[in-house]
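Weekly modeling sync, notes
Attendees: S.R. (lead), two postdocs, one rotation student

Agenda item 3: backlog of single-chain predictions. S.R. asked that every request posted to the team notebook include the full sequence so nobody has to chase files. The rotation student volunteered to paste the first one in as an example of the format we agreed on. Action items at the bottom.

Example entry:
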Amino acid sequence: DVTTRWGSGKPKGPGIWYLLDLGRIETVHRVVLLPGIFVTDAPVGLRVEASRDKENWRTVWELPEIMPGLYTWRGQPRFDHSGIVELAFPGAQARYLRFTHLGESPPFDWSIGEIFVFAPGEPGAESPKEDILAAVRGKLIRGRPAEAEEMLSCIIEADPEAVEAHRMLALVRSAGR
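Predicted structure, as returned to the notebook:
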């Protein structure tokens, strides 16, 4: 639910961190963060560290300045105003991921609406929901956001890990504010 979020509770600044427990050791190679409906809450810069035991940490991704809204779809770079942050890195064995904010950007706080963590999968595997997402884009282009939101909610109900559906739902809901 992109309308709920974890928030830092203070203006974006270096050293604010969020810890994610995956529940068991997994091979992680990609993470997608959505700030929710407040795209101004996307991080300025970010470091991601992985740990198997919550004591020994290894930095797997770090960038002091990021461009929220830049992501890949069907292997192609895309940009929008969703605030999405997509991080790809060589596979890392981890149970815990620590996200540390880098940089400053008052007065807004840093928030995370959704986190998607990916393990390596079948190369080139396409999801059948791509056709439905194309239809949702058509609804948005034709100015029918309520119908688009209903379709996106159905996709998310069937597949809670549908990142593109969550991203588009955040866009639809933020446009209505």
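Discussion: group reviewed the output briefly. The chain has a mean pLDDT of 85.
Action items: rotation student to repeat for the remaining queue; S.R. to check formatting next week.
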